[in-house]
Amino acid sequence: MKNFQYIVDTNYSPYANAIRKVASIPTYSLIRQPKNIAFHNLCLNSTKLPPLKQLLGLGLNYCPAPTTGTTFSQTGIDKFVRDYRTKIFFADLPDIDRNGDEKLLYLPSTDWTPPKPINPELVSRENGFISSIENLFSPASKSKAQPTTLLPNQTFALQWLQSNEEIVVFSSDKNLGPCVIERDRYVEFAYKFHLSDTNTYQRLTLADTRLLRSELIRKIESFTSIFARSLSKMDILFLTRSLNTVTGTGLSYLYQLAKIHKQPIKTRAIISYSGSYPEGIARWLDKELKKITKHMKYIAKSSRQVAQELTSRTWPPDIKLFTLDAVSMYTNIHLGHALPVILNFLQNTEYGKQVHLNSTVQLAPLEYALELVMSYNLFAFGDTFWRQTSGTAMGGPPAPEYATLYFAIRELEIIPLFPEILYYTRYIDDGLSIWQDSQDSQESSPSERLLQFKNCMNTFGSDHSFFTENPEHKPLQWTFEDPSTEAVFLDLRVTTQEGNIKTQLYEKELNLYLYIPATSCHPPSILKSIIFGAVHRAKVLNSSAENIMPCIVKTFQRLLARGYSSDTLKPLFQEATNKILRANSIDDTQTEDTQTENATADITAINDLLYFQLKFNPLDPQRNSLHHAFNETIVSPPRKRHLSQETNAPFKRLQICYKKQQSLGNILSPRKGRFTNYSVASELEKLSKNSDFGE
């Protein structure tokens, strides 16, 4: 009974004990257990662990199913009532500006409660729906409590990890599976690879942290007052609410991802802004930067776009491919250089002025927000407090767009200087180029020309006053692969032969493919999304038809290995292949009018809906029962007029918004860390005295 740990009853034989235990486990949990299970054990050989594979092999997105159904008080009925009353209250008011960009920023009001409808019939319908939901979720209507979907050994492993905080569970970079490591070594990695870099991170006292946090709050409040005439009402409302809804310390938190694809293993530092004071203005800044970067050249939006661009034209027969990768891009983009470069580009260059005009971004608030967000990057790690003094934080909302825009300005300068570059694109810190040696250059050989290009990439701003006055900081550096007939970029393997470029879906060797298992408490629609997404990727990323079906078959086999039955998978794969593989190709390019029409249609569809939020639970009433209750009590009750005759409110349908239950990642790997009765400060003090971490 290796896989089913339990306490035996000595009144029964071993065989009888086994039968009794297995009989208590749901059949579904037994037959749907994943066969493909794995995790990365980064602990030292001297660290003894109990069997964890059966649990962590489920993946950190796995959600154990509740053993009882949802109660009425646990449903989203309060939010539904608020949504219902709000839509009715505003039904007769002028339309609010529903610009697509503004919809990116929204927080519900916490200091305003919509009143009951004036029309008593609408109140009656609201009460009728509440009563129906209460009946559906009342204890008397619930089925018997069900056993957990976790096997006994999985439950034991979960309980052991919960009670042993000296073992840290965390994710790997590039989604390569869960990892475990000793807590001391987790803190050591944070110090060794990140926090010991005094050019990037500054340790703060509690008093300094409180002072800087107060300054940050004042500056955010000043932002909304200084630029009150420049910002939209939606922006001001969002920024105000984002400050008012902060709870706790209001700081960001540092956590790590394991770079298991690197040898020796390193970590990537992520700073989570969620729930922090600067989150609102950081999200606003991200929105504004997106308006700019969408007009810039050489930026890859997706693997699909790159594949289409590479395979849609004929290339010379002697081309070579090479990729480039930025070295610690986010921490090596210094505000002292980046801010003047961005502003000068948008204000003083012909191309930049056109981008500025097209983006409609106002530079004064953009400059203020950039300086504010990049200068006040405060975060906690355990019981220690820090400030990132250089670059931007990975995990911060504006970081990708900020990094993309910064170096795109350099690329606009140097790419035209090298006619050998027939194609160039970059996705944040990864680039791809197609190079053809020139025979016309009389002064430099092909190898010298490539070296000149590399030098131009690695000397961006080297003569700028920021770098000359701060020699401890260096311009952003890039590493280059040698030109070849094959290259890997994003999730594409690109090959060229006699000018014929082909693309193929690239799969990382270390990827464990830990799809959400069949026993996880997720809505059935998740499986459909996985399958349709996999079929779509196989079609658009493989330029050769013979490579498409093998990718789809691999996904089918991997899902089988995660506990799904063939009978469940076959109809979904058949539906996906019929709709995607046999459909005509759709051109991604759309006119501005078409995009506007689609956005308007999306907004109209959203306004047609009322939302009912609910954590998914297989023991709860089915979705169609909730829709029936909505239609029978609100839309068209028996012997009453249709809802449209009672109010101008646009909603007609109920949208069930299922949220996930608590996952293994939520339980075992919270972003704040599990440092109860553990002092990170004391451990860092020991590490700082260790000569191995000296300069």
Keywords:
alpha+beta; 42% helix; globular; five-stranded mixed sheet; 695 residues
What does this structure look like?
Among the domains are: 72-145 and 589-659, no CATH class; 524-581. It is built from 24 helices and 17 strands. The strands form five sheets. A five-stranded mixed β-sheet has the order 4-9-8-5-6. Strands 10-11-7-12 form a four-stranded antiparallel β-sheet, covered by helices on one side. With 695 residues, it is α+β, with helices and mostly antiparallel strands.
**Looking across the biggest beta sheet, what order are the strands in?**
4-9-8-5-6
Tally of helical segments:
24
Largest sheet: 5 strands, mixed
Which word captures the global form?
globular
Unreliable runs = 96-102, 585-605
Mean pLDDT: 88
Q: How many angstroms does the end-to-end distance come to?
A: 53 Å
Can you give the helix content as a percent range? 40-55%
Structure classification: alpha+beta
Number of strands: 17
Radius of gyration: 28 Å
How much strand?
5-15%
